[in-house]
Amino acid sequence: MDESRISVRYAKALFETAIEKGLLEQTEQDMKLLLEVGMQPDFRYFTDDPSIPPAKKTEFFIEVFGEHVGQLTIDIASLVIRNGRERYLAGIARNYIAMSRKQQGITTVVLTTATEPGAKTKEMIRAEIEETLKSEIDMKEVVDPAIIGGFVLQIGDRLFDASVKEKLKKIRKEISN
């Protein structure tokens, strides 16, 4: 079974349980914390080490997160660790956050530009996207000088590339044909 399916299955079970228990938002905050810490090399090294027994990993998880997350998060992490799937914790967190956002009607958007856009431009883009999608958005901004100019907009799994880099690539392709 591939990594994404495993992560999605656990995230879906967690999501359904959180809805059932009225803990959707708290668990989303827990998953954000887990994702942030789970990306740290030291944490990944510890959880990915097969020589450390699951009981020690669970004990470590509770020690690190116990005071900062709810019991539901501790329970799912314990289950994941007991099943030997701890390397999927970050993926589970990421998928849970996506499901929670979708449930709340929030669309995650990533705007990539060559330079930092001004506040007025950001607000105009935000308003236009919210109007088009008829949804509240969570806009993340990335500055990537490699795109030269224009922008790249990622909405969910859709990508709109209006960058100068992409246009130059298309021109090169046409010329070479």
Largest sheet: 4 strands, mixed
Number of strands: 4
Identify the CATH architecture of the largest domain. Answer: Orthogonal Bundle
How far the N terminus sits from the C terminus, by CA atoms, comes to: 42 Å
SSE layout and pairing:
Layout: H1 3-21, H2 24-38, H3 41-48, H4 54-65, H5 71-82, H6 89-103, E1 106-113, H7 119-133, E2 136-143, E3 150-155, E4 158-163, H8 164-176
Parallel strand pairs: 1-2
Antiparallel strand pairs: 1-3, 3-4
Please characterize this protein's 3D structure.
The protein has helices at 3-21, 24-38, 41-48, 54-65, 71-82, 89-103, 119-133, 164-176; strands at residues 106-113, 136-143, 150-155, 158-163. The protein is α+β, with helices and mostly antiparallel strands. The chain has two domains: 3-102, N-terminal domain of the delta subunit of the F1F0-ATP synthase (Peroxidase, domain 1, Orthogonal Bundle); 106-176, Glutaredoxin. A four-stranded mixed β-sheet has the order 2-1-3-4, sandwiched between helices. 23% of the residues are buried. The mean pLDDT is 91.
What labels would you give this structure?
single chain; 177 residues; alpha+beta; Peroxidase, domain 1; Glutaredoxin; 2 domains; four-stranded mixed β-sheet; 8 helices; elongated
In short:
This protein has 177 residues and is of the alpha+beta class. Helices cover 62% and strands 16% of the residues.
